[in-house]
Every structure is written in C-alpha cells, then in structure tokens.
C-alpha cells in the first residue's frame, strides 16, 4: 500500500471541510486574489469580507484601481489599519498598467516586483488564480509546519525560515495546487490555531510531531527577547548657593541629542576630576542623590546621580563654554530636558 502523503491528507480534508464560499474564491482572477491576500495580511477573514466587497465594487479591475486617487483608495481602507498595504496596492496597480500592459504578472519573479508582494503572497496569487505550483509560507502555514515537523527556533530567523521554505516546497503537490494552498490556509486558520489546536480533527495528526509530544502550543517558537547592554553613568547635580543648577547641552546627534541634561561621566572618579578642574574649591556636599534607569532602543542606561553643592559665588570658568548654563527659572528656560532629567530637576526646583 502506498503511503498517503502530507498533501493528500490535506486535500482530502479540504474536500469536505475547506472553505469554498469566500468572495475572493468566486471568479478567481489574479487581481481579485491579490486584493484579498493583501487585505488578509494582519486581518481576520470576517473583518475583511465587507471591505473586500466594497473595494471590488469600486475598483473591479486593476485599471480602475490605478486610475483612482490615493485618498479615495485609502478611504476604502479606513478601519482596516496598516495603511501602507493600501498605498502599496495602489502604487503596484499603476505599475501593472504602466509596465505590464494592464495584465497581472504571471511569474513569481515579476509578481515580486510589485510593491507589497513578497514570496509567499506572490506564490499564493499565482497558485490560487492560475493553479501554478508554488509554495506559500504565511503565518498559518508556518504554524502548521513548525508543529508538524517540530521545528525549533523563531521563524523570523533566516536559518529557520530557510528550513520552513524547504519543507513548504517539499510538500507542495504537482496537482491541485490551488486547492492545496487554500487548504493549508484553512487548516491553519480553523484547526491548527494559535491556542487550543483541534488536533483530533486534523488530517495530519497521525504524523504530527508536536501532537505526538503533546506540546503543539510550544510552536512556533516566540521571537527572542532582545538582550541589550547596560551602560553605567554618573550624573552631577551641581547646585549653587543662589539656587541654580548646572546643566549641560547634549551634542546635536546621539542620545538625547540637542537636549539639556546634567554633566555626565563614565564613573565617579572622572566626575570628581572634572569638578576639581572646573571648580577649584572643595564642594561642601557630595552625596548620592538618586539612581535613574532609562531604556533606549539599543541599551539601558543606569545612572547614579550625585548632588554637589558649592560654597562660594564661583560661577565663571566653565560658563565660557556654550554647552553649560546655570538653570534657575524654568519659566524663562526655552530648552528641552529628557524626561528622566526633568523628573530629577523638578523636586530640586521645589526645594529651592
Ligand atoms: S495535529 Fe494538531 S498541532 Fe499537528 S498540525 Fe494538526 S492541528 Fe496542528
């Protein structure tokens, strides 16, 4: 007896349980499938249907879409979100009219030249509208394949993605490609769902590795949390006896670029050296004041703040540099402070 293949099981299931009445499954032209595929990215079928029908009434062909204004196209998208999808669709329709004589491309490479169409979407359009043999790898298919083959690793990683494309290609049948593509989408959307997959009803459960291991929800692996380094710093809250605080302007580029902050150092020793260099006297107070933590996109900043109080009227020297200012009256100050520094200065202002 010949072994039933993955695709045969999926197609058999599709014949009795697949979805066949969705609006884009009627009159399946490449244009109609394309619009549906773009709308279905990030959006559920039930939400898409009324939008799709209205869109198709207004723009039944790629030419009508290309001739529409961007405002009009976007108004048809209002409520669906991710508006770059609509802008790309509109832009691509103009390209189809200009470079492809108004005909949707019919090869994978040409299809992928259109804005907003990646390999999976291009494969889906050509498979569903022309029964061409292409694999797809949307979120539903990734979920099914990672579970069925117990593929470890986050699918966003290129090595994992490569492996998944190989598996997707491997299972694609020579015949009934359109049905198979639709079946894989349906299987992922209705049975192999993100939480609580209905494995008992699934045509693949006999050979599904995750089902056998009892852990389908472990797949696909989640995106690893980004580990970003921590930088230590020391900030000086130098206060003068007249109540003003020394602030320093950050360089125009980089972290907090162009904003006003407190003099910042790598460590306490460098901070003390700087004080000695610019203020010949010994501070009457040098004490720990507060710790601030702040997360930037590529590092965490842990900064210890020391309060420094000077005991004379000495205010010159450092002021020759444009980057420093004695800050006293917040109402007269027009510069900007980063939020954590503003917080540090606020209690100080109320004390003075
Ligand atoms: S058996 Fe369960 S986990 Fe495996 S593919 Fe089917 S629904 Fe998904």
Automatic annotation (TrEMBL):
Domain HhH-GPD: 39-190
Any one biological process term the GO annotation gives: mismatch repair
EC number: 3.2.2.31
Gene3D superfamilies, per database record: Helix-hairpin-Helix base-excision DNA repair enzymes (C-terminal), Hypothetical protein, domain 2, Nucleoside Triphosphate Pyrophosphohydrolase
Cofactor, how bound (note): Binds 1 [4Fe-4S] cluster.
Reactions catalysed: Hydrolyzes free adenine bases from 7,8-dihydro-8-oxoguanine:adenine mismatched double-stranded DNA, leaving an apurinic site
Cofactor: [4Fe-4S] cluster
The protein's enzyme class: hydrolase
Coiled-coil annotated spans: none
Oxidoreductase among keywords: no
Pfam family, one: HhH-GPD
SMART domains: ENDO3c
Protein purpose: Adenine glycosylase active on G-A mispairs. MutY also corrects error-prone DNA synthesis past GO lesions which are due to the oxidatively damaged form of guanine: 7,8-dihydro-8-oxoguanine (8-oxo-dGTP).
Similarity remark: Belongs to the Nth/MutY family.
PANTHER family for this protein: ADENINE DNA GLYCOSYLASE (PTHR42944:SF1)
UniProt-recorded name of the protein: Adenine DNA glycosylase
Organism: uncultured Thiotrichaceae bacterium
Lineage of origin: Bacteria, Pseudomonadati, Pseudomonadota, Gammaproteobacteria, Thiotrichales
């Amino acid at each position: 007896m010949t072994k039933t293949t993955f695709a045969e099981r999926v197609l058999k299931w599709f014949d009795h349980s697949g979805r066949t009445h969705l609006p884009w499954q009627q009159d399946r032209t490449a244009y109609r499938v394309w619009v549906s595929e773009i709308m279905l990215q990030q959006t559920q079928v039930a939400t898409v249907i009324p939008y799709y029908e209205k869109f198709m009434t207004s723009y039944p062909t790629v030419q009508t879409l290309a001739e529409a204004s961007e405002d009009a196209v976007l108004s048809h998208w209002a409520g669906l979100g991710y508006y770059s999808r609509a802008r790309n669709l509109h832009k691509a329709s103009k390209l189809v009219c200009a470079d492809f004589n108004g005909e949707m491309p019919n090869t994978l490479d040409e299809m992928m030249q259109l804005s907003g169409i990646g390999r999976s979407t291009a494969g889906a359009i050509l498979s569903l509208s022309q029964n061409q043999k292409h694999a797809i790898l949307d979120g539903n298919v990734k979920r099914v394949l990672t579970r069925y083959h117990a593929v470890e690793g986050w699918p966003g990683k290129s090595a994992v993605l490569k492996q998944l494309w190989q598996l997707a290609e491997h299972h694609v049948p020579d015949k009934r490609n359109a049905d198979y593509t639709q079946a894989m989408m349906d299987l992922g959307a209705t049975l192999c769902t993100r939480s609580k997959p209905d494995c008992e009803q699934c045509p693949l459960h006999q050979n599904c590795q995750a089902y056998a291991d009892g852990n389908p929800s472990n797949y696909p692996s989640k995106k690893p949390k980004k580990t970003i380094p921590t930088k230590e710093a020391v900030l000086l809250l130098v206060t003068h006896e007249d109540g003003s605080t020394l602030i320093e302007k950050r360089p125009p580029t980089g972290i907090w670029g162009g904003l006003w902050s407190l003099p910042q150092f790598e460590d306490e020793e460098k901070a003390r050296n700087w004080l000695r260099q610019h203020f010949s006297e010994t501070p009457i107070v040098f004490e720990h004041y507060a710790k601030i933590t702040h997360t930037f996109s590529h590092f965490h900043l842990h900064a210890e703040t020391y309060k420094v109080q000077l005991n004379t009227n000495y205010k010159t020297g450092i002021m020759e540099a444009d980057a420093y200012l004695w800050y006293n009256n917040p109402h007269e100050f027009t510069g900007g402070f980063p939020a954590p520094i503003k917080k540090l200065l606020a209690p100080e202002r109320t004390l003075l």
